[in-house]
Amino acid sequence: MLDSHRIIAIELDERTVIWRNADVEQERRVAIFDLLEGNCFRPLGIAHDGPYRLLLRVEEGRLVMDLADEAKEPLGSVQLGLAPFRRTVREYFAICDSYYKAIRNASPSAIETIDMARRAIHNDAATLLLERLEGRVEMDFDTARRLFTLICVLHIRQ
User: Fold this and answer.
1) Which residues, 6+ apart, have CB-to-CB distance to 57 below 8 Å?
2) 43: domain range?
3) Does 82 fall in a domain?
4) pLDDT tens-digit map of 73-131
5) pTM
6) How many domains does the chain have?
């Protein structure tokens, strides 16, 4: 993909997020930092070649990715039904909760086992995201992984 096919700024619609703990906030910061450091993102069907500003929000059970150019001029949006992600998001929350508890008092081998399971769920979710966006957005696997992390942050309702 061309260098212009990338995200240069990303925001989460804070109205969507009701609550986050310190661990989740750290995951959000790291995902955004890593995403901006290196990503490949190309919405298909938009006459602009990038780079892109992205606002993520959840509306009526759908992920909405509002796209804008560098000057913040709207380019359109991509919507994605989130129903296929419900189980994966639930599993990911559960394993992350176990992971955060483990890093505070479990043995290194127990932490590694939980982290391997966490990464496997995360990888499966990234693959699902790539499949669901096929024909609408081209992106690399690492970009999909980081976007899935941010989708999870938008789902927190505790």
Assistant:
1) 12, 13, 15, 16, 63, 64, 66, 154
2) 7-155
3) yes
4) 999 999 999 999 989 988 988 898 898 889 889 999 999 999 999 999 999 999 999 99
5) 0.87
6) 1
